[in-house]
Amino acid sequence: MNMALMWGGLLGLAGAAEIEGRWVHPLCEPLMVDRNGPFALLEDGSIWTVDEQGFRTSEDDGISWSDAIPVASGIKPSEPASFHLVRTRNHVLVMVYLDLAEYQFRWDDLKGEPQEGCKLELWSVRSLDQGKTWVDHQRLLDGYNANFFGFIETSGNVLVATVEHLVSKPGRWVSCSFFSEDEGKTWKRSNLIDIGGHGHHDGATEPTVAELSDGRLMMLMRTNLDRFWQAFSEDRGRYWRVVQPSSIDASSAPGYLLALKSGRLVLVWNRLNPEGGTWKKSEPGPASETPASWHREELSMAFSEDDGKTWTPGVVLAKQKGGQLSYPLLMERRPGEIWIVAGFAFKDKWKDPAPFRVRLREESLFREALSQDH
Fold it and tell me: Is position 193 within any domain?
């Protein structure tokens, strides 16, 4: 049986417009939500998000939203992975975000260094009354920071956000975590993870994180080295003492790692090369000191049942020839129901936005992944 299904046909069933040139795996169903999130679950089963106007909730899976309650300035949902949300077990709402109100990116291509005034600060804020008011607004990290893909509450009730930070001499990215043992009231920073590199998109960038079955944390970081690098913490994000290349091939693009209620890990990302082909690497330059794949035309998903030691083959979820599907966001809306959003979804490289928001059943896609082993 041909497992292909054109996106236009799938969306046509839901009354949405056709998106030219997009193929979507038939196990994906369109989401009717009208925004890219991030989303988090409230105690009553509704979902919440934050936009430029503030905190909003939805009781119908994102079809409609409440009026906004102001939270903080500098929130920009059009910049994917610029903020993340957690509701703690004690029902405290916490947000970690980049303040884009004072964003300034300044880079000297000749020196390969960030210039003075390069600024994008990392902040946090929280609510103790289900979003009615917001308190403890504080800066976590000054200088220039960028997109991040990990913010979780561990089984030990510690909040952990994995982030990236721009350093100089040579200019490159390093990763670290911020952790809070009092539900976002105060924060501490871990050691820096530095794998070298030189360029405004080089180093250890855009980290994502999940808690493993034994309580350790696993971080995956975007690199220009043909694969994710991984780091492990045995103390809930205080230190990262094991840092090494992973077995997961990846282009120069971030992934999203999520621990599912089933006990599996799931990863959505852009592979090093398209299915059945090879992606031409970029030449070394201001972005990277090494040749790098920037393949973003396909979005894939894989599972692990052994805490990331091994992974199923990657299943291609969608293809956008000539465009891109990248910067994914995942949420387990209900046990076994995974929501997937592409923060960057374009028909023509960085032009012609074409939203990609789908959901799928974990077991169905997992069986599909296993079948590719044969």
Answer: yes
What are the structure tokens assigned to 107, written together? 């880079």
Query: Would 241 be classed as within a structural domain?
Result: yes
Give the list of residues 6+ apart from residue 318 with CB closer than 8 angstroms, or none.
Answer: 7, 22, 23, 24, 25, 28, 298, 299, 325, 342, 356, 358
Is 68 in contact with 74 (CB distance < 8 Å)?
A: no
CA distance to 20, 188, 291, per residue, from 44 (Å)? 38, 31, 49
Number of structural domains the chain divides into: 1
**CATH code for the domain of 139:** 2.120.10.10
178, two tokens: 């911020």
Predicted pLDDT at 19: 82
Residue 18 has what pLDDT? 55
Contact 213, 305 (CB under 8 A): no
Range of the domain at 221: 33-292
pLDDT at position 37 over 60: yes
Give the list of residues 6+ apart from residue 15 with CB closer than 8 angstroms, or none: none
Distance, CA of 371 to CA of 98 (rounded, Å): 41
* 217 backbone dihedrals φ, ψ, rounded to 5°: -105, 140
Phi-psi region of 236 (alpha: psi -120 to 50; beta: other; left: phi over 0): left
Which tokens belong to 291? 């040749």
Q: What is the mean pLDDT of residues 251-274?
A: 98
